[in-house]
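for the recovery benchmark. tokens below, seq after
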């Protein structure tokens, strides 16, 4: 979302720059067609931005958003419809010569400039804050129940693990390291849009899971119980099992090395299907990667199925639930 807001701000900034340039050349001081057209350009941009944001909000609400593309074709379609409708509407509402007067027409342009400046400043500030510091996130599934419920809204602390250089995977000033038990928001760890995992295409989507294994940890699941470095995690007060039955382990002739390789290549779920839910591993978490699992262990599409999460894909740490009001809390 922050990238979308950034480019929306740039778009409005270009209009503001063009307006100042035309005013300096005295092109907008008379009742001419250019003045009228330029007003329609502004209203068209405003309509485009409004409809695009509505489309993005609807996609976010339905969890149908990819963070790897700027705008989808559907979102742009909404935007172009809003742009044309707004521009045509403002063309016919332009003050007429006999009733509007030059003063009225110039006041319309002055209002356009004020709105341009406001939108430009507010949107760029919002995109800056969302990219580097705090981002809103909505829980799309039941994989983190009881910690988070479907529809919960929370803030993600994006600066805690470092400041990311825009459009790169490079992070500076890493204030804290990822620890076991941290709840991460991250981009699905695949660069293949056609990769099919957990019943769908997950490419470009944001996930939220809890860290179970950090680099170098040996992780194994036996009959639904999680073992890290051969010791069972007994203090998982956040975890729940909604299915009383355990799926038996699927016997395999794979060596430990081959199993590890298949897991790192995100193929364990494709090879063993649901069997990895309750009997998985052992695997060793690679360097600069993490194994994550949902708190709702029987209803979570996580690292058991599609492998480790590279550090470069991590966006931030779940900070606080802010909506609905009855759910306001700092997650454990």
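predicted aa per position
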């Amino acid at each position: 979302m922050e990238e979308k807001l950034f480019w929306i701000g740039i778009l409005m900034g270009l209009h503001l720059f063009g307006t100042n340039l035309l005013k300096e050349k005295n092109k907008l001081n008379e009742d001419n067609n250019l003045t009228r057209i330029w007003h329609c350009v502004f209203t068209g941009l405003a309509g485009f931005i409004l409809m695009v944001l509505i489309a993005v909000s609807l996609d976010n609400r339905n969890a149908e958003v990819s963070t790897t593309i700027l705008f989808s074709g559907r979102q742009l379609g909404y935007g172009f419809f809003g742009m044309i409708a707004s521009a045509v509407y403002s063309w016919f509402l332009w003050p007429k010569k006999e009733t509007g007067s030059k003063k009225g027409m110039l006041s319309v342009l002055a209002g356009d400039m004020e709105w341009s400046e406001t939108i430009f400043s507010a949107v760029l500030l919002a995109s800056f804050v969302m990219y580097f510091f705090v981002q809103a996130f909505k829980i799309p599934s039941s994989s983190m129940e009881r910690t988070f419920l479907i529809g919960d809204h929370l803030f993600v602390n994006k600066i805690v693990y470092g400041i990311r250089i825009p459009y790169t995977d490079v992070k500076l000033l890493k204030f804290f390291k990822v620890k076991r038990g941290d709840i991460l928001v991250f981009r699905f760890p695949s660069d293949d849009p056609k990769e099919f995992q957990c019943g769908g295409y997950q490419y470009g989507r944001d996930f939220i899971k809890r860290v179970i294994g950090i680099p170098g940890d040996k992780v194994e699941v036996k009959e639904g119980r999680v073992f890290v470095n051969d010791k069972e995690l007994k203090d998982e007060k956040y975890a729940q099992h909604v299915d009383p039955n355990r799926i038996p382990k699927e016997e395999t002739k794979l060596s430990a090395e081959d199993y590890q390789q298949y897991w790192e290549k995100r193929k364990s779920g494709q090879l063993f299907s649901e069997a990895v839910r309750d009997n998985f591993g052992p695997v060793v978490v690679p360097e600069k990667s993490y194994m994550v699992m949902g708190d709702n262990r029987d209803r979570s599409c996580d690292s058991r199925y599609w492998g480790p999460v590279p550090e470069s894909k991590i966006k931030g740490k779940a900070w606080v639930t802010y909506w609905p009001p009855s759910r306001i809390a700092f997650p454990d």
